[in-house]
């Protein structure tokens, strides 16, 4: 008798349909494999009493010894012996029923071989079982002491009670009693509790066997508790306007360079069943959580309002801002505009299916000092949201220059949207420098058109002393004062603004020269242009006694050249430092820092012309063989600027494949 003679043939495709759908959805993450292995060990230990998993056949209604057919042939796996057919081995007759169809044996779904087979099977919700019984074979897990193959039969018709399911060895089919299991796991775990047990009561399986929900529940539980993405970090620099402030407002050029003081944004992903997003700006005491589902997605995703990652947005939509107000109402912090910028960009770039996250930001940039701290934050948020949505390619040595330009433009465009939420009508120079790094020549004659931006690709890295006078100032009032002066003295003020423009042009010729050497006369000429520019700004009336005191202390000691930066009237000044030639030069520098500290000012040692926005993916530190995660708690626990830089700083972790990566269209990325 052959399989073709069977009155009720069952195809192998039918068995494929019977594979548990839950198993097909199990991901290949190492943590889930370990957990599934623990669950499998428990059920393997209980197998002599309960039989193997009932998940192998979805549509089987019962398993009964009485339905085992009378046949001389039982399907088995393994090498054939002499005299056997190609598909069967002879076996003892048990009854008078017709021989069952020959079917390939099934592996346990938690075995390596069974898992590989299951991945190829189609997902189908049900199985229409034939009335004829099915036979299939089960093998113990690798390493189990009870290695005898076991045969099971499944029937749909009447017969034995539906809850009966027992393993049958070949010896028992030939008339002997079933052997006792010798599994070590059974002896060890017979009284144990399966991992990830459920508090719900057990329910009968589809084949009638009463089984625990713990296994399937454990897999879905692990799936819910596993974040969709790893934690990562984004960083962007501050900026210093070296030449051209105030003149740039009147259509002249300005040079702005990246400063090594940076903002760092840590993105922590929550379990999948959590549907919240949190913005935590620890430096300004802003910490708020929103329910993702309750945000105005329908309004932002409407066809008339929807924006995509590739769009260039030049103005804010008043109706979208109005739709945000209910979500922003609980925030009474004076930095309400920062939350507005985050939500506006988040709703434009994300969706209601965006992963639940906590955005935690810390910055080493002085706030309100004219160094572009807000632009640094918006660049970090823009890059993080693009990465989270999969719309950016992470920095790589193999990334083409043209692709780097596209990635940076996308980040910069949406960072400018955030800047508009904070400042209303920003120039765009701050976010441009924070995105691309190095330095740019910036000019905006017509505010109805995009600005002219030229990257200074040969800009050298220059040592810098930054001094924060801690003197508050109002940028709008200072800009208005220069406007008034120009209206009163158009010719004289016009000449001063032209002179500032000439200083900027000459400085650009020096800085954008690949032959620039910071240790000779080039640096001296650059310093003299710094002093001239500062004198012209003093003539325009935008300096302050504290700024003049800084210039007196630094320039009087002979260690560098000083000028105010930004709008003036307080805020910060910077000094380009001369090269240290002897130990006495270092002593002078330390004495200057002590003097400034005694007068209530704060000094920073920094570098001009560094990298722009960068990514640390995933957020880990340490050597390749002993890397560890940077957690949100570690990030918040870092003490002060020095602690943040020591933990996650670019200098501390370095650059490269396992460290900080940067999009650079002008320099090759490290391997």
Automatic annotation (TrEMBL):
UniProt keyword list: ATP-binding, Cytoplasm, Kinase, Lipid biosynthesis, Lipid metabolism, Magnesium, Nucleotide-binding, Steroid biosynthesis, Steroid metabolism, Sterol biosynthesis, Sterol metabolism, Transferase
Region entry Disordered, spans: 1-214
Domain GHMP kinase C-terminal: 523-583
Protein name stated in the entry: mevalonate kinase
Protein's UniProt keywords contain Kinase: yes
Subcellular location: Cytoplasm
Domain (GHMP kinase N-terminal): residue spans on this chain: 359-434
InterPro entries: GHMP_kinase_C_dom (IPR013750), GHMP_kinase_C_sf (IPR036554), GHMP_kinase_N_dom (IPR006204), GHMP_knse_ATP-bd_CS (IPR006203), Mev_gal_kin (IPR006205), Ribosomal_Su5_D2-typ_SF (IPR020568), Ribsml_uS5_D2-typ_fold_subgr (IPR014721)
């Amino acid at each position: 008798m052959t399989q073709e003679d069977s009155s009720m043939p069952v195809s192998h495709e039918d068995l494929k349909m019977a594979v548990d759908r839950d198993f097909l959805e199990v991901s290949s993450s190492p943590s889930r494999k370990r957990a599934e292995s623990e669950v499998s060990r428990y059920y393997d230990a209980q197998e002599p009493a309960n039989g193997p998993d009932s998940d192998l056949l979805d549509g089987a209604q019962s398993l009964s010894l009485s339905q085992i057919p009378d046949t001389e042939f039982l399907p088995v796996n393994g090498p054939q012996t002499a005299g056997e057919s190609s598909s069967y081995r002879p076996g003892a007759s048990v009854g008078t029923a017709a021989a069952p169809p020959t079917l390939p044996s099934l592996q346990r779904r938690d075995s390596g071989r069974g898992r590989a087979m299951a991945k190829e099977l189609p997902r189908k919700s049900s199985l229409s079982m034939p009335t004829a019984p099915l036979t299939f074979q089960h093998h113990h897990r690798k390493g189990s002491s009870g290695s005898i193959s076991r045969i099971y039969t499944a029937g749909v018709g009447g017969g034995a009670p539906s809850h009966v399911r027992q393993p049958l060895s070949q010896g028992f089919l030939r008339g002997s009693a079933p052997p006792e299991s010798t599994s070590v796991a059974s002896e060890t775990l017979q009284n144990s509790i399966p991992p990830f047990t459920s508090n719900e009561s057990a329910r009968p399986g589809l084949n009638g066997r009463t089984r625990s929900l713990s296994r399937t529940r454990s897999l879905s539980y692990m799936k819910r508790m596993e974040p969709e993405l790893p934690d990562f970090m984004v960083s962007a620099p501050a900026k210093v306007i070296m030449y051209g402030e105030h003149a740039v407002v009147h259509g002249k050029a300005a040079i702005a360079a990246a400063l090594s003081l940076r903002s760092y944004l840590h993105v922590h992903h929550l379990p999948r069943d959590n549907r919240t997003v949190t913005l935590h700006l620890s430096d300004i005491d802003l910490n708020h959580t929103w329910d993702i589902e309750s945000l105005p997605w329908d309004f932002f995703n409407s066809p008339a309002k929807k924006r995509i990652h590739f769009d260039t947005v030049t103005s804010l939509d008043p109706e979208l801002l109005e739709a945000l107000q209910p979500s922003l109402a609980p925030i009474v912090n004076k930095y309400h505009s920062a939350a507005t910028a985050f939500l506006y960009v988040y709703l434009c770039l994300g969706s209601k299916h965006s992963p639940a996250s906590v955005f935690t930001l810390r910055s080493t940039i002085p706030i309100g000092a004219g160094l572009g701290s807000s632009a640094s934050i918006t660049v970090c948020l823009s890059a993080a949201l693009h990465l989270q949505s999969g719309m950016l390619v992470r920095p790589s040595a193999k990334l083409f220059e043209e692709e780097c330009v596209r990635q940076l433009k996308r980040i910069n465009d949406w960072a400018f949207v955030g800047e508009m939420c904070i400042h209303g009508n920003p120039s765009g120079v701050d976010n441009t420098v924070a995105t691309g790094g190095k330095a740019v020549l910036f000019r905006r004659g017509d505010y109805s058109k995009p600005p002219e931006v030229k990257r200074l690709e040969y800009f050298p890295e220059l040592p810098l002393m930054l001094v924060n006078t801690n003197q508050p100032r109002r940028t709008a009032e200072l800009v208005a004062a220069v406007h008034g002066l120009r209206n009163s003295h158009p010719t004289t003020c016009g000449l001063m603004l032209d002179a500032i423009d000439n200083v900027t042009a000459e400085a650009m010729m020096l800085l954008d020269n690949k032959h620039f050497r910071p240790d000779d006369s080039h640096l001296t000429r650059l310093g003299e242009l710094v002093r001239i520019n500062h004198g012209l700004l003093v003539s325009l009336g935008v300096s302050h006694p504290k700024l003049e005191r800084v210039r007196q202390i630094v320039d009087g000691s002979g260690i560098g050249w000083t000028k105010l930066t930004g709008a003036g009237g307080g805020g910060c000044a910077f000094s380009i430092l001369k090269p240290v030639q002897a130990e006495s030069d270092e002593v002078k520098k330390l004495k200057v820092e002590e003097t400034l500290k005694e007068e209530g000012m704060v000094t920073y040692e920094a570098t001009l012309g560094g990298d722009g926005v960068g990514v640390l993916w995933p957020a880990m530190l340490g050597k390749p063989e002993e890397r560890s995660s940077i957690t949100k708690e570690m990030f918040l626990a870092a003490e002060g600027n020095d602690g943040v830089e020591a933990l996650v700083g670019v200098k501390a972790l370095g650059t490269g494949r396992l460290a900080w990566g940067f999009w650079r269209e002008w320099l090759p990325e490290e391997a």
